[in-house]
Design a protein that fits this description.
four-stranded antiparallel β-sheet; globular
């Protein structure tokens, strides 16, 4: 599947897709950020098509590379996007270190952010998958951090990543 972004006419083919009835949600890493237009950094890009007609294109990120690793339906009105962010501005102003794990819950109607949460410490942190479970969100990720909100999970940093499983409540609390 290939898609041309309406905003830039850029063709993208590295996609995550969700299809339900007449709607198609496309998640991609758009390599020219509207948040830093003169730079070649990735932003998370969500596109919605309804009956093959363009509905919206929304970008999430800051001035550095921010990437998604999964998208799932959260409920009938929203989607969960998981990944990591290297930016230290915009959504990522509270970034504790090199990269933070990222969870976004966005509206299916217009892509607006309902809530977002960063997970991590002073090193590299990533959320690989996020699943809805009984109104909460279960996160699966990896981390090299031993501080921040990862601290209760690990007391010794390994040279390789530590795996973690966390839960975020429906209000965004860890």
């Amino acid at each position: 599947f290939r898609y041309t972004l309406p905003s830039t006419q850029m063709v993208i083919d590295d996609l995550f897709l969700i299809e339900n009835s007449d709607d198609l949600y496309i998640l991609n890493h758009h390599n020219v950020s509207p948040n830093a237009p003169n730079e070649m950094f990735d932003d998370i890009c969500l596109i919605k098509l309804h009956n093959n007609q363009f509905v919206f294109e929304e970008h999430y990120g800051g001035s550095a590379s921010d990437r998604a690793t999964s998208i799932k339906e959260y409920d009938s009105n929203s989607l969960i996007i998981a990944g990591s962010g290297y930016s230290e501005d915009g959504l990522f102003a509270s970034n504790n270190g090199w990269a933070e794990g990222l969870v976004l819950v966005v509206s299916k109607i217009d892509g607006e952010i309902i809530f977002h949460h960063l997970v991590g410490g002073s090193r590299h942190d990533n959320i690989i998958e996020a699943f809805p479970v009984n109104g909460n969100i279960v996160l699966i990720g990896n981390s090299n951090s031993i501080d921040g909100d990862i601290a209760p999970l690990f007391n010794v940093a390994l040279s390789a990543s530590n795996c973690f499983v966390m839960k975020i409540t429906e209000t965004g609390s860890l």
